[in-house]
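User: Can you write out an input/output pair for a complex, sequences first and structure second?

Assistant: Here is one pair. Inputs:
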Amino acid sequence: MKKNTYLMKGNEAIAEGAIRAGCKAFFGYPITPQTEIAAYMSNKMRESGGVYLQAESEISAINMVLGAAATGTRVMTSSSSPGISLKTETISYIAASDLPCVIVDVQRAGPGLGGIQPSQADYFQVVKALGHGDFYCLVYAPSGVGEAVEIIHKAFDKANQYRMPVIVLADGILGQMMEPVCFDDEVKQDKLVEKNWATSGHQEKRPPNIVNSLILNVNSLEQKIVDRFKKYEEIKLNEIMVEEYLIDDAEIVIIAYGSTARIAKTAVDSMRADGEKIGVLRPISLWPFPDNKIEEISKKVKNILVVEMSMGQMILDVKAVVQGRCPVDFCGRTGGNVPTPTEIIDKVSSIKKED
Amino acid sequence: MKTVFEKTKGLTDAITHYCPGCTHGISHRIVGEVLEEFEVLGKTVGIASVGCSVMSYDYFNVDMIQAPHGRAPAVATGVKRVLPDNIVFTYQGDGDLAAIGTGEVVHAAARGENITVIFINNGTYGMTGGQMAPTTLLSQVTQTTPKGRDKHNDGFPIRVCEMLSTLEGVVYAERTALDSPKGVMQTKRAVKKAFKSQIEKKGFSIVEILSTCPTNWGLTAVESLKWVEKEMTEYYPLGVYKDKTDKGVF
């Protein structure tokens, strides 16, 4: 099939990628820096015969997602940090009702209204607790526009395979920057599995389907959650994604995700030119987290350096895996500031001096 | 032998959990009968809300979704937008619709969302044990208004049909009361008209049904019916507040 290359903004490419992944409904609400996703959808989703609707709130948008997901339709919403906070109640309901959907979070700086510049300070919220109760969402963090397009397609496939919400965690840099991205000339439609659980009308041919998260019997609710966690174990076995960059001989490994990983790679290229044995491990799936890979690295390197656009959130997961086998240092900026390659290089130098 | 009465196919055989004297059962039966009479049970999706009627997902013989508190009209919108030929209704109490879910119902109505809302107004939060609702009458005693609802502290009860009928997207809005056999028959006519307007894709329809809650009102079943008739209908007059079913809203 013929492919064409387009220069696209991250947000628009994510939207186009979603439509090409068979997304048939988008419910959104404006918030910087993700609004281009909704704007693109309002045009292209309608053109492609799907549903686009601007809801009256983030809360309504995610509840419209719940309704459309319950019918078995491929559906998504997108937002940025404060808007994601509003959606969390219903994300919990969606997870508890075992419904598939895709949610894009183009992170901005918090807390509160914070600022509109890029951030990775929603890691705790998205990875650990996107709502009340015992549950997880699959979380992917692409680091470029092209990868975001691949990831959004994967997100729909995995949401449907596992019947759960999948989060694509981007940030203001990825959402706003333009990069070349390849699309096939034709949109090929995936063959979708039959969803015998969907609430789309029983046609008097089967008993009613019920999409529900209320289970008042404590033992039944516990069993339901335990069963869901068995699914999570399967996901941990099969869905971990990382990128390894020059880590085979590395004595220092930087762990970073999303846009920050690209800055780390620039720093690494510069340090490699000076003979430094340093590399980058980039988690692409944040949940499930690449525990085994990080454990393996921690056994053979001198230092691990975690770089984030926050005061240090993912670093807690890294430390939990490393368990003191090697020092774990942190380099980060927050509030919408972006760490520079120079700041990373300076941090590496200071680590080496301490050694 | 000739069959003169049958339970509607619109309801399952599940035994409801409602208290003695509660009129939820009558509302359920009316909705079930109407869906059966229109022969749309097979393509209907119902949205249960949070409150006493949450478990209605077990009682209606149609595909059901249980929505977060107040969000049923948004969930219904999601269903209806992707399945425009299906019949979609919400079944919501006054706490759900007129307090936590005010935004959702107003905007679904403003969009002219082609859904039907069955709104049960009994002036209290039943499931949590009888606290003040947005529809609790002035001076009405509840668990959280022990000396009666005081307008200076608690504000005024909301008249939902009157409020929604100002919105262009609403094709049909009627308030009825389940206080008598006559009221039951009128409620059925209203529910039928609401669903008919949805089948004909004419816009947003709502039937507000004044209902009883003997348990939380501290009244007998019969006293409760009288209370609806005497106290509730005075503040919440019965009648049709909007009817554009001849032309539709668009």
